[in-house]
C-alpha cells in the first residue's frame, strides 16, 4: 500500500501535464525516456552525495542540506539530464515541450525518492506518505515546470539568460523550499506558504502562456 501511495501523486502530476499538452502530444517513447532519465538521476544524485561526504566531511545543517546536498546536487543533475534528453531532439519543437519533459524528469526522480522515504523503517509510514504527497512530490513537479519553462524560452527565443535561469530559478526555489521546512523557527511557515502559493501560481501561468503561444494551436 505504501508503494501505491508513493506512486499516486507522481502519476497524477504526469497525467495533468500530459493533458495540458493538447496541441501536439509528445511521443510515448520520449515521455517514457523522460521518466527513465528522472529515475536514473536518483542513482547519480546518491553517488554524488556520497562523494561529497567523503571529500568534504561536514555536519548536516539546514543551510548545507538545503542549498548544497539537496537542491544543489539534485537540480544540477536533473538539469544536465533534461538538456541531454531534449536540447537537440527533434521532438522538442515548441516551448511547452520544455515543461512537459521537465516535469517527467523531475517526477521520475520524485517517484524513487518517495518510495525510499515512505518505506524507510524509521522515517517512513503513512504520515510520511501523505505529507510528501501534498508537499515534496508536487514540489519537485513545480521545480520541473520552472526548469522546463526557461529551457523552452532559451531554445525558441534564443535567450542566453533563460538558459541560466533554467537552472538558477528551480535551484533557488528548491533550496528555499527545503530551508523553510528544515529550520525549526515556527515563523518560517509564513514564507514557506508564500513560496508554495507563488510556485503554483507561477507554474499554472507558465503553462497557460506556453499553451497559448504554441505554433500547433491552429
Tally of discrete structural domains: 1
Give the biggest beta sheet. none
Report the structural category: mainly alpha
Order of helices and strands: HHHHHHHH
Which runs of at least 5 residues are low in confidence (pLDDT < 50)? none
What portion of residues belong to β-strands? under 5%
Helix content: over 70%
The number of E-state strands comes to 0
Number of helices, counting only DSSP H or I runs of 4 residues or more: 8
What is the terminal-to-terminal distance?
A: 44 Å
SSE topology:
Elements: H1 2-20, H2 28-55, H3 62-86, H4 96-118, H5 126-134, H6 136-157, H7 160-182, H8 189-212
Descriptive account of the structure:
The protein has 218 residues and is mainly alpha-helical. The protein has one domain. 79% of the residues lie in helices and 0% in strands. The protein is built from eight helices and no strands. α4 runs antiparallel to α6. It is globular. The model has no long low-confidence stretch (mean pLDDT 93). InterPro entries: Peptidase_PrsW_arch/bac, PrsW. Belongs to the protease PrsW family. It is found in: Cell membrane. It is a multi-pass membrane protein. Its main location: membrane.
Summarize the structure.
The chain contains eight helices and no strands. By secondary structure, it is mostly helical. The chain is globular and about 55 Å long.
Amino acid at each position: 500500500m505504501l508503494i501505491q501511495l508513493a506512486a499516486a501523486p507522481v502519476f497524477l502530476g504526469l497525467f495533468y501535464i500530459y493533458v495540458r499538452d493538447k496541441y501536439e502530444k509528445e511521443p510515448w517513447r520520449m515521455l517514457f525516456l523522460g521518466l527513465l532519465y528522472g529515475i536514473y538521476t536518483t542513482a547519480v544524485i546518491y553517488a554524488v552525495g556520497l562523494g561529497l561526504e567523503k571529500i568534504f566531511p561536514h555536519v548536516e545543517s539546514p543551510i548545507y542540506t538545503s542549498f548544497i546536498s539537496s537542491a544543489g546536487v539534485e537540480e544540477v543533475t536533473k538539469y544536465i539530464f533534461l538538456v541531454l534528453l531534449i536540447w537537440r531532439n527533434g521532438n522538442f519543437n515548441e516551448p511547452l515541450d520544455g515543461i512537459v519533459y521537465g516535469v517527467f524528469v523531475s517526477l521520475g526522480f520524485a517517484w524513487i525518492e518517495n518510495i525510499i522515504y515512505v518505506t524507510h523503517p524509521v522515517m517512513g509510514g503513512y504520515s510520511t506518505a501523505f505529507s510528501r504527497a501534498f508537499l515534496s512530490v508536487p514540489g519537485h513537479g513545480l521545480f520541473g515546470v520552472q526548469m522546463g519553462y526557461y529551457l523552452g524560452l532559451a531554445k525558441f527565443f534564443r535567450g542566453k539568460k533563460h538558459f541560466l535561469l533554467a537552472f538558477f530559478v528551480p535551484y533557488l526555489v528548491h533550496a528555499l523550499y527545503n530551508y523553510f521546512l528544515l529550520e525549526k523557527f515556527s515563523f518560517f511557515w509564513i514564507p514557506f506558504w508564500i513560496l508554495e502559493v507563488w510556485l503554483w501560481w507561477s507554474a499554472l501561468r507558465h503553462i497557460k502562456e506556453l499553451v497559448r503561444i504554441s505554433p500547433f494551436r491552429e
